[in-house]
Amino acid sequence: MPIPTEPVIFSKFANALASPGDAIVIDETQEMDWEVEMVVVIGKEGKRIPKADAMNYVAGFSVAHDVSARDWQMKKNGGQ
Predict the structure, then answer these.
(1) Spatial CB neighbours of 49, under 8 Å, sequence gap ≥ 6
(2) What is the helix (H) or strand (E) element at residue 58, kind and residue range?
(3) Residues 6-35: pLDDT tens digits?
(4) Nearest CA to 10 among 64, 61, 70, 65?
(5) pTM listed for this prediction
(6) DSSP 8-state code for residue 19
(7) What angle do CA 31, 7, 65 make, to 5 degrees?
(8) 17 and 64 in contact (C-beta within 8 Å)?
(9) 71 CB contacts (<8 Å, ≥6 apart)?
């Protein structure tokens, strides 16, 4: 595998979040894509939680609208 010429990072930082109704800024991409995702809201800290107790740590559920620059994600540096 060749050494990447650019860092290979996939992250959604907190400043990437938007409120309902906010505009989605589209720049530096020609292949914007979107998908709807289910969000699980974790309500309290936990570590090594038994499967049977897992739902006691869930505060709720929601939906998210995720947008991705597919040309950046899939084509630069050989893809994701």
Answers:
(1) 57
(2) strand 58-69
(3) 766 666 777 878 888 898 888 888 999 989
(4) 70
(5) 0.58
(6) -
(7) 40
(8) no
(9) 29, 30, 31
Q: Which two three-digit tokens encode residue 35?
A: 């998908």
Distances (CA, A) of 28 to 25, 31, 32, 45, 47: 10, 9, 10, 38, 39
Q: Calculate the average pLDDT of the chain.
A: 85
Structure tokens at 43: 């309500």
CB 10, CB 73: distance < 8 Å: yes
Strands 32-42 and 58-69: antiparallel
**How far apart are the C-alpha atoms of 36 and 34, rounded to whole Å?**
7
Q: Token pair for residue 3? A: 């050494």
> Tokens 């505009």 sit at which residue?
23
User: What 3-state class would DSSP assign to 31?
Assistant: coil
Phi first, then psi, for residue 19 (nearest 5°) are: -85, 160
